[in-house]
Automatic annotation (TrEMBL), chain A:
Membrane-protein topology: Multi-pass membrane protein
Protein name: ABC transporter permease
Pfam families xref list: BPD_transp_1, BPD_transp_1_N
Similarity-based family: Belongs to the binding-protein-dependent transport system permease family.
Alphabetic keyword roster: Cell membrane, Membrane, Transmembrane, Transmembrane helix, Transport
Protein's cellular compartments: Cell membrane
ABC transmembrane type-1 domain residues: 93-294
Transmembrane segments: 9-30, 99-121, 128-153, 165-185, 225-247, 277-297
TrEMBL record, chain B:
Name used for this protein in its record: ABC transporter substrate-binding protein
Family the entry assigns: Belongs to the bacterial solute-binding protein 5 family.
A Pfam family assignment: SBP_bac_5
Main location: other
Gene3D superfamilies the record matches: Dipeptide-binding Protein, Domain 3, Periplasmic binding protein-like II
Cell inner membrane as UniProt keyword: no
Species lineage: Bacteria, Bacillati, Bacillota, Limnochordia, Limnochordales
Record CDD domains: PBP2_OppA (cd08504)
Keywords: Signal, Transport
Domain Solute-binding protein family intervals: 31-110, 245-551
Compartments where located: Cell envelope
InterPro entries referenced in this protein's UniProt entry, alphabetically: SBP_5, SBP_5_dom
């Protein structure tokens, strides 16, 4: 087990290095730079490049960058001149993570429940209702749901604040806007996974042994059906806790999601690299966690050698 | 191998015949090469470009291809003159026609179309070398006429913006030059729930990227800087510059108009430290210093402060030489409260320029203390203006409170201005509806929804001109007649009324009707008149296109042949 984890971590570091290098290359391959603006003269442009060490050869910039990365120093943003990327992530991530985890809690919980309900009532009306709901929320993008909610619950009914991030009541709409499509996806996934398991011989065996319906579902079906769901949870969590650009812009939430898109648009190199690497680290860590979680859900799976 | 003279003669004859035949082909008109226009990817910009593309197609039969790209890519292509046409815009840096006309001199860094006209250059140089305002304006009028004749650009519209104001919002002064809004004299009257304490809830739209006045470049930061810092002068409610309107209580000008001596009023920063002449010296030196790499360094040069241009051109890597040269920079503290500025030559714009953001002093003691971290947080920034930053949660909110140490605090009525940073225009409007914002901008896609809203303010001209810029190195657009033809084919009125629908005006010249005329008073644009027609002059446009394309040897499109 220990050796397995060590190997996975080494592999993770290698992955991160590849991502850092690719991002660096791609970022410098697109035209424009962080300082380009309508009122910038070539002289001052050159001075800014010098000031930020961007007049040096790319390879040198790359190694400087890697060196800082290893030390955990992500540098200063080139758009918000006086702020470090570390600060931006430190302030933005908790907010995005809060919203993301809440959306996952809502989305996954209700999604799984609905999926189970649909599978158990296969081809009866609850199944159709769930399929219809799932189809609806998978098709309608979060920002449309968000805008509708803002108008109906915010402006028309006055029940909820339209935007800002002050307390629980402020989190309801963005959580739903982010969580509903997740719920729909999970419900469809769980339904098909359940149907597959319900068809297995061991389920029939369990039923013929005279186990109660509930026991069959709980002990034999759901536990096995949930396995594929665990697999997709890793990337899902990493993706959601790092924030959604559209939802955060819409609801005026000071999260990390905004930075991803804006950093690319602004060619804010340190911020592009910082946010990308942060996301990559999370993703690699989540994948490892998922593999470890597997052993808990499925006793047949053993990581590494039994002797570890 | 040896050739006889006969063979040589034969080959020569064949060659001449071939050349003649080819020459004959060359005399027939060549097909038009593609005219490529660069466009940003936003919905609004797309619609705008397609509208003009259609006008040029309909009126001239010219096909313009639109190439979409993001903002930074477009800028890079522009700076490298890698385009035929581009839709661009310019907002004024100071209240004088020069801020627009200076763009098109031959060696201007912003002249991406590489247009060059000797007479035009001479006029602008002459305007810079005289203090006679009437003469300056006459030069500018002539320059505008050359622009219209040669059409390196085709002005399309003067932008206006729409916003909703709650009925209780009073006294905000909006300015097309400098900071967009002046809050010093703002107040509320009749707010439900009472006007005490007095506050405003506004939307900033985004995080201010840079609140160090020496390096700041964007309108959002300017808004906050103008509210928190006083310069030598602050334009009053009527837009006038008067002694005592800012930190300078009085000043004298030497007989040769080159030396200004400002007497500073007794005032302190919000932390109680006295504001001294040295704060000004320190900050102005930072702006001119190449190591600072301030985008607005050119404003110091424009002001003509002694030795400024020389220092600006120094090598940023030679710190020692720069430090020495800065000692000769024409701005000196004679004592704690006396600032002396020496200009290279008399400059009628000088006082106007000192209201610009780059000339605002930041507290030297804090800039030295915090270095790169100055203005990064509410706790590392100083104020000398009507307001100070009380709270600042990045990407979320910024709260200004009345600055108790402000020299003119008795005239500041607002206790607090709360700024949200809502990027989404739709969300901001919903918040306005919910009563969470006192002002909201109406972006073009919401114009139809709010057209008859009782809170809708008259369109506010923001001072920017948007124009088509032609690349004069382009094989077709190098011809002035072709450029002028396109400029005449644009239906500016239809564009403003039907495409923009936000109260923007058809631009009939480059300088917008917000720039004042210092000689006659009023607006400079009145002298200029309509140089580009508001409605297209199709007949003349087609005639010019025929002439231009024939001169170049290109085919004339079917539509333009009648």
């Amino acid at each position: 087990m220990v050796r397995y984890i060590a190997r996975r971590i080494a592999l993770g570091v290698l992955t991160l290095w590849v991502i850092a290098t690719l991002t660096f290359v791609l970022m410098h391959a697109i035209p424009g730079d962080p300082f380009a603006s309508e009122k910038l003269t070539p002289q001052i442009h050159q001075l800014m490049l010098v000031k930020y060490g961007m007049d040096r050869p790319l390879i040198q910039q790359y190694f400087t960058y890697l060196g800082n990365l290893v030390r955990g120093d992500l540098g200063y943003s080139m758009r918000q001149m006086n702020r470090t990327v570390n600060d931006m992530i430190r302030e933005g991530f908790p907010v995005s993570a809060h919203l993301g985890l809440q959306a996952i809690a809502v989305g996954v919980t209700f999604g799984l429940v609905l999926g189970v309900i649909a599978a158990v009532n296969h081809n009866r009306w609850p199944d159709y209702v769930v399929i219809l709901l799932a189809l609806l929320f998978v098709s309608i993008p979060g920002f449309v749901v968000g805008a509708l909610m803002q108008y109906v619950f915010g402006v028309r009914l006055g029940w909820l604040p339209v935007a800002r991030w002050e307390g629980f009541v402020y989190t309801i709409m963005p959580t739903l806007a982010l969580g509903l499509s997740m719920m729909a996806g999970q419900a469809r996934f769980m339904r098909s996974s359940m149907l597959e398991v319900l068809d297995q011989d061991y389920v029939r065996t369990a039923e013929s042994k005279g186990l109660s319906r509930r026991e069959v579902l709980w002990r034999h079906t759901i536990r096995n059906a949930i396995l594929p769901i665990v697999t997709i949870m890793g990337p899902l969590v990493a993706g959601v806790v790092t924030g959604s650009f559209i939802i955060e812009s819409m609801f005026g939430i000071p999260g990390l999601g905004k930075y991803y898109v804006q950093s690319i648009y602004n060619r804010d190199y340190p911020l592009i690299m910082g946010t990308t690497m942060f996301y990559a680290v999370l993703l690699v860590a989540m994948m490892l966690l998922v593999d470890l979680a597997y052993t808990l859900v499925d006793p047949r799976i053993r990581l590494g050698k039994a002797s570890d | 191998m040896r050739h006889t003279w006969r063979q040589v003669a034969f080959v020569a004859a064949v060659a001449m015949a071939l050349a003649g035949a080819l020459g004959g082909v060359a005399l027939a008109a060549k097909p038009l090469p593609p005219i490529v226009m660069l466009s940003d990817t936003g919905d609004v910009v797309r619609t705008m470009n397609q509208a003009i593309q259609e006008m040029v197609r309909k009126n001239l039969g010219l096909e313009i291809q639109i190439e979409y790209m993001d903002f930074k890519t477009r800028l890079e292509r522009m700076r490298n003159s890698n385009f035929s046409v581009v839709f661009a815009g310019w907002g004024p840096d100071y209240d004088d026609p020069m801020t627009f006309l200076d763009l098109w001199v031959t060696d201007s860094a912003f002249n991406d179309g590489k247009w060059s006209n000797q007479r035009y250059d001479e006029l602008l140089a002459a305007a810079k070398n005289t203090t006679d305002q009437e003469k300056r304006m006459q030069y500018f009028v002539e320059a505008e006429k050359i622009l219209a004749q040669e059409a390196p650009i085709a002005p399309v519209y003067w932008r206006s913006r729409l916003s909703l104001y709650k009925p209780w919002v009073k006294g905000i002064i909006r300015r097309p030059v400098g900071a967009e809004a002046e809050y010093k004299w703002a107040y509320t009257q009749g707010r439900p729930g009472g006007d005490s304490p007095m506050y405003l809830n506004l939307n900033l739209g985004e995080e201010p990227p840079d609140l160090d006045p020496a390096t700041s470049t964007d309108t959002v930061s300017f808004l906050i800087l103008n509210a928190t810092l006083d310069g030598l002068v602050r334009k009053d409610a009527q837009g006038q510059i008067r002694p005592g309107s800012g930190l300078a209580e009085s000043w004298t000008v030497s007989p040769d108009q080159k030396v200004y001596t400002f007497k500073l009023r007794k005032a302190t920063w919000d932390d109680g430290t006295p504001i001294t002449a040295d704060d000004f010296v320190y900050q102005w030196r930072r702006v001119i210093d190449p190591r600072t790499a301030s985008q607005y360094q050119f404003m110091m040069e424009l002001a003509g402060i002694a030795n400024g241009s020389k220092i600006a051109k120094m090598d940023a890597k030679d710190g020692e030489a720069i430090d020495k040269a800065l000692e000769t920079f024409g701005v000196k503290a004679l004592d704690e409260r006396t600032l002396q500025v020496t200009l290279e030559k008399p400059n009628p714009l000088f006082l106007e320029l000192t209201t610009f953001i780059s000339f605002l002093p930041a507290p030297k003691h804090l800039v030295e203390k915090y270095g790169d971290k100055y203005a990064a947080e509410a706790s590392t920034i100083g104020a000398s203006g009507p307001f100070r930053i009380a709270e600042w949660k990045h990407q979320y909110e910024l709260v200004l409170e009345k600055n108790p140490k402000y020299w003119d605090a008795k005239n500041v009525k607002l206790q607090k201005i709360h700024f949200d940073m809502i990027t989404d225009a739709g969300t901001a409007l919903q918040m306005y509806e919910q009563g969470k914002l006192d002002i909201a901008g109406v972006a073009s896609r919401y114009v139809d929804v709010y057209r008859n809203h009782p809170d809708l303010q008259p369109p506010w001209p923001d001072g920017s001109t948007f124009y088509w810029e032609f690349n004069t190195l382009d094989p077709v657009l190098k011809n002035a007649k072709v450029r002028r033809a396109i400029a005449l084919a644009i239906d500016r009125k239809a564009f403003a009324d039907r495409v923009l629908r936000n109260g923007s005006y058809p631009a009939t010249s480059l300088t917008p009707p917000v720039i004042t005329d210092p000689a006659k008073g009023g607006i400079f644009q009145k002298r200029v008149g309509e140089l580009f027609p508001a409605t297209p002059d199709v007949k003349l446009a087609r005639q010019l296109l025929r002439e231009g394309l024939t001169e170049l040897g290109y085919e004339v499109p079917e539509v333009a042949r009648q």
